[in-house]
Amino acid sequence: MGQARKPGRRRRWLRWLWRLPLLFVAVTVLQVLALRFVDPPFSAFMVARQFEAVAAGDFGYRIAYDWRDLEAMAPSLPLALVAAEDQRFPQHHGFDLEAIQDARASNARGRKVRGASTITQQVAKNLFLWSGRSWVRKGIEAWYAMLIELFWPKHRILEVYANVAEFGDGVYGAQAAARTWFHRDAADLTRAQSARLAAVLPSPRRYSVANPGPYVQRRTRGIERQMRQLGNDYLSGLE
Length: 239
Fold this sequence. Notes:
The protein has helices at 2-37, 44-55, 76-85, 97-108, 119-128, 135-151, 154-164, 174-182, 191-199, 214-230; strands at 64-65, 166-168, 171-172. It is mainly α. Helix 3 (76-85) packs across helix 10. The radius of gyration is 21 Å and the shape is globular.
């Protein structure tokens, strides 16, 4: 009797194993489709940061996050984000192949390791995943990035990015950043302020918007130059 049960149990486990990939596809597609229309109340990075604070005994820690539609932000802010992070954002489909090739060539020459992560990939990582550099995480990030590009217009991708990007420890999104660092709404940010916010994005817990060091100051000036080169109408055609 016991031996007869074992093959049946094994078959049931195998059936579940075959269903797991289909379940993963269904859940992730539904997630991405829902957030095409529903503004996310939080991101995976926000949840992880809150758990970090609790684990460290900081029970009073609070996340600063206040959603704003893209139209309720100064036009300079999305332009600064694109100028700083992903200048081919309007043209690519989630993966910037030219930037990937440039990064590989740069890293092969022994220069400082550089990445080629697009805004779409960063939305996928910040919204759904955890920090880290494992191949598993990168693979899931690529899957989410493909879904986001498939189901979201570019306007929505940039809007979500501007709202979930971390601009300082626990400060997420343009509105919370504008209120925290400049005591104004995101709609009232100047070009210089927008560029400074974008300048800290490589490492928002290391670099400061309020007290910018030499690196942030240089990067801010560089982003402002790139914004002028791209032009104010660079993102006007986004759907």
